[in-house]
Write a structure and sequence with these properties.
Elements: H1 2-51
């Protein structure tokens, strides 16, 4: 009986770890995309000001 409970607890811990790591990965991805977007917009503003 205890082995069944241990397996269930391990499964829950693994799911929680995967969810936490997925959230961290999503935050890093969102921050990277936002940073890249700001970089592209700033380069666009610089190019626009130089062209006019």
């Amino acid at each position: 009986m205890s082995t069944k409970t241990d397996k269930n607890e391990n499964k829950i811990e693994n799911q929680e770890y995967l969810m936490d790591s997925s959230i961290d990965d999503a935050k890093w991805l969102l921050a990277s995309v936002a940073t890249l977007g700001l970089l592209v917009m700033s380069l666009g503003l610089i190019a626009s000001s130089l062209a006019s």
